[in-house]
Amino acid sequence: MKAFRVLLIVLGLLAAPANVAAKKGSYVLLRSNTFSFSEAKTSPEGFSVKAILTLSESVKDTMLYAIPNLLSVRLSRHDPKDIRRHNYPAGKMADGSVPVLEASLMIRLPEGCTPVRDGQPEVQEMVIGVPLGLLDKPFGRHEMVLNYDGVTWDMYLDGQLVDRDFVLGSPASMAHEGSSSSLTISKAYVPQPKKEKHAHRVPVQYFTPRGHNTWVGDVATLWYKGRYHVFYLLDRRGHESKFGRGGHYFEHLSTADFLHWTEHEAAVPIEEQWETLGTGTPFVWHDTLFISYGMHTSRIWPAERTSTPRQWQYIKEHGESEALPFAYPISNMEDFPSGASYSISANGVANFRKSHVLIHPAENPTIYTDRDGRLCMLANYGARGMWTSDRLDGGWHCLSEDFPPGGDCTFIFRWGDYDYIVGGFTHMWMKSASAQTDEYIDMVASGKDLYDGLSVPSICELPNGRHLMAGWVEMNRHWGGPLVIRELIQYPDGCIGSRFMPELMPKLIAKSREPRDGMLSPQKSYLLTFDVEPEATGGQLSLHLSSDDTQQECVWTLDTRERTARFGEGKSLRNGGQPQRATDFAIESLRGIEKPFTVRIIILNNPKFGGSLLDVEIAGQRTMISHREGLNVGTFRFESDGLTIRKLEVNEIETAQFGFKN
Higher model confidence: residue 183 or residue 41? Predict the structure, then answer.
């Protein structure tokens, strides 16, 4: 079946002087996510349901419409404490309630597909929905369109896409096509984007895609021809879309100055039911921009129904991989493509198109060009080892089965006299640039890794020698979260630190003040800045961040004697901690704390996050970030022993408005 993509079109660069833009902050400017249906074409490969709804403020659990064994539309009052899966409490009403409009499609799973859980039923309910609190006008008249095109199951309200899931299987029954006085069923719409005059802008730091259940997953970055590119896996429902198989795909942001950002069309969209995509890397080959990616087809079909066995057999017989072209739609249902592929940019900026060629069995391929211009690959998930080829399509042969030494979603880079590998969530190695690959040192074992709460960090070098690290922050024990970008610092011994990137600092919207009572508004976000003067023997300070009723509290502790900082009672990575969970964890080997230094803490209170995001910079040389589920910071207080706190300032900052309002 052919998928019809709904694309989020974005404005280009603003014509504003750099000094003016810096005062306004760094923003992604998005055109209104609005679509026209009156002029839309239809497709025979699915169906659409169109209805006019009149919603009143007295929301009760009500079935608005139902077609047995096919679909249902209902209103309900969601539990305000239940943030799992759909994250509906991101759209609470003023009274704290969470009225929700939902639509369910009954899907019959394909026979023989890979089960996600034991005992999965043959027919499953695919639910999409929206909390009414995110709408500009929650109550009154609304036009609803539900669209099933064979690949996606979408909900539109008043022409705006408010939720989507990716289908696996087919509707359980299609026997009830027709219309009633309140609802019309027709062929699937192919909605056309409207041309809007107004833009929707959000800060790029802590960015998430528009909506209540939309998150940034694994990030891959590259600087190419004057632009910094961020490719990210757009995920809904914390990896629970497509009946728990992920259903994420590569979206694309870029910037020339880190102040004005463009969101491009998806670099690698999902176009077929059998597709669910994994991490890859952007790279340049013969002066052309590519992005590699993995097809995680094994999450949908058993290995024997994919191309994986055939690919490995070819490598065994020939010592290298072969190129396997394929076309859409797939005609051989016993040989679904699985493994590494790539997309090609038509203009060196965006306009990517899929190659439709499998090049290797690795389902998370890290492809890059080395210092000699050779194509190299670190194979992850479904394969391992370091591989190279003199051509992109096939010909990949293994140089080392045991390299890299571990990890997944790996990134390799050189900085001056040192080489580094960052391995997914918890691994990092370093060696001298002149040393052999078997001489990498485990930085985690020495407590000198760079993990600060980000998941799957990606490293990129800029032309001026600056290095950036981008990743995502886990929230609510889900896969995916907001985008975070750091600037890295390299020390003479090769160790790496991190700091807030000046260009991406949040905009201050209130003058600084020195609070005497430690009171904050849990509906606002803040930048806390203070200086620390250590005594000769060092000391410890703790910052207690609490909700107004003090039922929730987070304690951040800095110890200059032990050279550590931690959230709660968390441990460092080498001592069994889990910084990638972004809850309680510790960092070690702090630098720059022997003499007076500055601490900056960003407190983000936002309903989409289901709590507070706490981002810390210590002495301009180390960062750490934590998500505190259920905590909306309203008060703070310090406890100190051997450390003196001076020049405390509190600034209110601007944060993104997550919703569908313009």
Answer: 41
